[in-house]
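debug: dumping io for the single-chain case to check the tokenizer round-trip. Nothing else runs in this session.
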Amino acid sequence: MLVNIVAVLCVLGLAIGQILFKASAASLALTGSFFSPKTAVTLLAAMSLYAVTSIAWVWVLQKTELGRVYPLMALAFVLVPLGSHIFFGERFQPQYFVGVGLIVVGIVVAVRTW
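debug: decoded output
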């Protein structure tokens, strides 16, 4: 059970990391410098989160089979665009939601054996 929780936290961490990467890219576009405090801090936060998440993912893989937990990574394809909508106001076409629905159904089918 703990392994599954940590696996889901890894996916959340990766999704949040992607949002932070986007925020650092937006800051870089405004400032033109990686050394701008806002850009540097946001980029460092994203990279640090990715590092911690990677270490946690290795722990997950030590405890269970890759094929059992990897389907959860598809949740990032749902969470990252959701975050981009919330934080950056990005919009999506209706077919996007059909795709998200298919991804969610696929995840449910793949991990149903837990």
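debug: round-trip ok. The chain is about 80% helix and 0% strand.
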